[in-house]
Amino acid sequence: MSNIGNITNNPRGPKPKRVLSRRNIFLYGTLLVIGLYYAVPLYVMVMTSLKGMPEIRMGNIFSPPMEITFEPWVKAWAEACTGLKCQGLSSGFWNSVIITVPSVIISIAIASVNGYALANWRFRGANIFFTILIFGAFIPYQVMIYPIVIMLREMGIYGTLTGLVIVHTIFGMPILTLLFRNYFSSLPEELFKAARVDGAGFWSILFRVMLPMSMPIFTVAAILQITGIWNDFLFGVVFTGPEAYPMTAQLNSIVNSTTGVREYNVNMAATILTALVPLSIYFISGKLFVRGIAAGAVKG
Amino acid sequence: MSYSVEIKNLDLRFGNLKVLENLNLGINNGEFLVLLGSSGCGKSTLLNSIAGLLEISDGQIFINGQNVTWAEPSERGIGMVFQSYALYPQMTVEGNLSFGLKNAKLPRDEIKSRVARAAEILQIEPLLKRKPAELSGGQRQRVAIGRALVRDVEVFLFDEPLSNLDAKLRADLRVEIKQLHQKLNNTMIYVTHDQTEAMTLADRIAIMKDGYIMQLDSPNEIYNRPTHRYVAEFIGSPTMNFITGTVDKGKFKSSLSSFSLKGYKTIKKDFSGKVGLGIRPEHIEGGAGASKCSVSYEGTVEMVEPLGSDTLARVKVKEHLFWVRLDGQFKLSAGDILPIGFEPVNAHLFDANTDLRV
Predict the structure, then answer these.
(1) Shared-domain flag, residues B202 and B271
(2) Of B229, B254, B285, which one is at a domain's C-terminal end?
(3) What's the sign of the alpha-carbon dihedral B41, B47, B53, B55?
(4) pLDDT averaged per 10 residues in sequence order, chain A, 300 residues
(5) Looking at the domain assignment, is residue B135 inside a domain?
(6) pTM exceeds 0.95 for this model
(7) How far is A196 from chain B (nearest CA, A)?
(8) Each residue of B296-316: pLDDT tens digit?
(9) Alpha-carbon gap: A205 to the closest alpha carbon of chain B (Å)
(10) Using 50, 70 and 90 to split pLDDT, how confident is the model at B356?
(11) Quick check: is B32 in a domain?
C-alpha cells in the first residue's frame, strides 16, 4: 500500500504507464478494425479457393474447408479457359514478366538520370522541362490512349509487347523523375560540389558518388513500378492482343467468362495467383520501402 | 606585383537579387585571407565563385595569373574544404583522398605517394581503410583537408570548415590549420563567421556586409583602427560601447559629459558634427583605477558575467549601458556602484551620417 502512495505522491523515475488507458483502447481498437477490414476478404478468398464446388454451394463462406483440395489452383494456373484457349493463367504470367522486367529497368534507368540532372545540374530550361513532366502526371491516361495507339501503329509495334513496354516506360516517367529529383535534392549539395572540385563529370558523379548512396530510393522506385505495371489492366488490354495479354487481362477473361458454371474456387485461386507477385514484393521489401520513403528526411 | 588570386569587377546575381556587386580583391601569394561576415553577407558566395561552383554574372577571376573565369572547378588549381566535410560516404578514407587523382588519370604510383604524404601530414594513416561513418568529426574534417592536400594545388579554399565541430576540437583544428599554412605556404582563403578564427588565422581579413568588402586589413589594423562602424561593432566581444554626441573643435560633447579628444588621431582634421564614440569593453577601466582616467563616470552594475579569466560587467550610467571587461578576480555583484573610466586615445569616432571613421 505504501508503494502506491509513493507512486502518486512522490513521483520518481519513469512515469508508470497504464496498459488499458482510453488512448490505448482507442488506438489498438482502431488498428484491429482496420486490420480485419483488409484481412477478412483475403481469408475468405484463401478458404474458398481450397474448397470444392459442392462445399461452396452450401454457403457459409467463413468456414474453413472440410476437405482441402488444390484442384482449383491447378485449374487456375494451367487449365482455365480464357476466351478460346484453355491454358490457364500460366501464359499470362510469363507475358506479365516479359512486360514488367524491361519496363521497370528501362523506366528507372531513364528516370534516375532525369532526376539527377534536374536536381544537380541546373541546365537552361530545366524548370520548363520539369513543369511539363509533372504536368504529364496529372493528365488522365484515357485522354492519351487513342493518340498513342495511332503512334504505335505508325511505328509498326502496335499489339506487341515492345509497344507496351514503351508505353509503360513513358507513363512511369513523371512520377519516377519527381521521386528521384527529390531524393537527389535531399542529398547534401556540398557532396556534389566536392566531386566537381575533384574533377568528376556528369556520369562519374552519378555512378561513383550519387548512386552508391541511393539504394533506398531505387528500392522504392522498383516497388512502385513492379506493382504498378504488374497490376495494370487498361494498357494491357488496349496495347496488346489476346496472344500477348498480361496476367491481369487473362484473369478478367477467366472470371468474367459467361459460359458454364461460375467456379468461385478457381476464380479465387486465379486472383490470388495474380496478386502474388505484388504481394510478395511488399512482404520482402516492406521494411526497405518504408525506409526509402522516409529517406528524404534523413541525411545520407 | 602578381596576385595568387585576383577578382576583378565581380558581379553575381540570383535573378534580381544582387549578391555581389563590382567586387575587386587581390590575394597575395602564400597569404592567408579570411572572409568574415555574418550569414547572408556573400562570403560563401564569393568563395564558391572563386571555386567555379557558381556561375558569375560579370567580371573576371584570375588564379596564378590565368584567367579561370570560364574554367571548370577541377581546372582552376584549387582544393576546397566544406563545412559538412562532404566526404563520399561509400568510399574509404583512401578512396576519398584518391578520387580526384583518379579522375585526373594520374599514374597509380603517383596517387599512392600523394595519398601517403597527405595522410602523414595530417596524421590520418591509421584511418585510411575506414569509411567516413566510422570517423569522428575532427577526423572527418582532417580527411576533407587531406582531399584538398593531395591535389597539390596552389590555392586552398575553406568554407566554414570548423563550424560543425565542438569548441575544443575547433580550437585544436584551428591551430592545425595554421601550422599547415606555415608548413605549406599555400594561398588560403577561409570563410567564417567566427571572429576568433579570423583574428587568429588571418594575414588579412576581409570583412563583408551585403556583398561589399567593408574593410580589408590585417587583424591588428581591423581591431585597432576599424574604418567603419560596422567593422568596429563586428569585431570584439562583447561588442564596442557607443556614446552618441557631437565633435566640435577637438572636444566631444554628449549627454553624459564633454571632454577633450587630446591624443586621438583623427583622419579628417577639424571634423565637427554628430558622431558615435566607440570604446571597447577592454579599454574601460573599472574600480579604483577609473578616477585616474581622463574621462570617468560612476554607474550601477546591472549584470555580472564571470568568465574565470575575465569578468564582464554591464554598467548603467544614466541612460547609457557600458560593457566593461574587468579582472577575473574582481569581486562584484549586481547593484554595486562602480566607477568606470577610459582614455580618449583608445576611442573610435564614427561620423553619425556615414558611419565612417573620422
Answers:
(1) no
(2) B229
(3) positive
(4) 57 84 92 95 92 85 86 86 77 91 96 94 86 84 88 88 91 91 91 93 94 88 92 89 85 79 86 90 76 50
(5) yes
(6) no
(7) 6
(8) 999 999 999 999 999 999 999
(9) 10
(10) very high
(11) yes
Distances (CA, A) of A60 to A36, A49, A53, A56, A267: 18, 14, 13, 8, 17
| Residue of B84, B90, B100 lying closest to A199 (CB–CB) | B100
Predicted local confidence at residue A65, as pLDDT? 86
Residues contacting residue A280 through CB under 8 Å, at least 6 positions apart: none
Chain A residue with CA closest to B99: the answer is: A198
Phi first, then psi, for residue A177 (nearest 5°) are: -60, -45
Q: CA A255, CA A272: separation in Å to the nearest integer? A: 12
Instruction: Show residues of chain A in contact with B104, CB under 8 Å.
Output: 199
Percent of all residues in chain B with a pLDDT value above 90, rounded to a whole number: 77
| pLDDT tops 60 at residue B49 | yes
Determine contact: B83 vs chain A, CB below 8 A.
Answer: yes
Do strands B310-317 and B320-327 pair parallel, antiparallel, or not at all (unpaired)?
antiparallel
Task: Name the one residue in this structure whose C-alpha cell is 566535410.
Answer: B85
CA distance A190 to chain B (A): 6
Q: From the list B80, B88, B151, which residue is nearest A191 (CB)?
A: B88
Query: Of B185, B209, B229, at which residue does a domain stop?
Result: B229
In this structure, are B22 and B38 located in the same domain? yes
Rounded Cα distance, B128 and B132, in Å: 10
Do B223 and B334 share a structural domain? Answer: no
- The structural domain count of chain B equals 2
Written as one string, the DSSP assignment of A94-111 is: HHHHHHHHHHHHHHHHHH
Complex prediction ipTM: 0.86
The reply to whether B358 falls in a domain is: no
Q: Which residue has the higher pLDDT, A209 or B262?
A: A209
| Assigned CATH for A90-297 | 1.10.3720.10
Whether pLDDT at B128 is above 90: yes
- The CATH number of residue B101's host domain is 3.40.50.300
Quick check: B229 and B278 in contact, CB under 8 A? Answer: yes
Beta carbons of B72 and A194 less than 8 Å apart: no
Return the number of CB contacts < 8 Å for A and B: 65
**Domain encompassing residue B162:** 5-229
Residues of A in contact with B103 (CB under 8 A): 198-201, 204
Domain of B241, CATH number, reads 2.40.50.140
User: Contact B82/A208, CB-based, under 8 Å?
Assistant: no
Same domain assignment for residues B260 and B167: no
**Three-state SS at B234:** helix
Residue of A nearest to B133 (CA): A300
Domain ranges of chain A: 2-72, 90-297
In a domain, B30, yes or no: yes
- Are residues B81 and B199 part of one domain? yes
DSSP conformational letter for B267: S
